[in-house]
Specification:
129 residues; mainly alpha; Multidrug-efflux Transporter Regulator, Chain: A, Domain 2; two-stranded antiparallel ribbon
């Protein structure tokens, strides 16, 4: 199938498919005699895998490792689990950072009267060191 068909079946647009190939995340597609990319069922499965991994907020480098492990039949599940646990640790760090950010923003919002007056405590606080 061509890249447009692969796009429809995988849920990724052609530009993203080419990008993943260029970055080495997706194995390079075979080429037809006229030079067009040709995709097979296994390629669609890999593209869907990449899409799902992106939806779980894995980085491109993590996805590249996961795709390698997916296609490596002598892989160790320990390696896959280790990568996922590391990702969970990073997410927990981001959650803490966002909670702190939310608290700071909430305090800023509470300091502003939010009326028709031009005086705004939020702008004042953001302007001060």
């Amino acid at each position: 199938m061509n890249i447009n068909e692969a796009s429809k079946k995988s849920g990724l647009n052609p530009k993203m498919i080419r990008y993943y190939e260029k970055r080495g995340i997706m194995p390079k597609a075979k080429r037809s005699t006229n030079g067009y990319r040709v995709y097979f069922t296994e390629d669609i499965q890999t593209l869907r895998f990449i899409k799902r991994a992106r939806s779980l907020d894995f980085s491109l480098s993590e996805i590249k490792k996961l795709v390698y492990l997916l296609h490596n039949k002598v892989r160790s599940s320990r390696d896959v689990k280790s990568l996922v646990l590391k990702h969970i640790t990073e997410i927990n760090f981001k959650i803490k950072a966002y909670k702190s950010l939310k608290k700071d923003l909430s305090q800023l919002a509470e300091s502003c009267l939010g009326n028709d007056n031009s005086q705004c405590a939020i702008l004042d606080k953001l302007s001060s060191s």
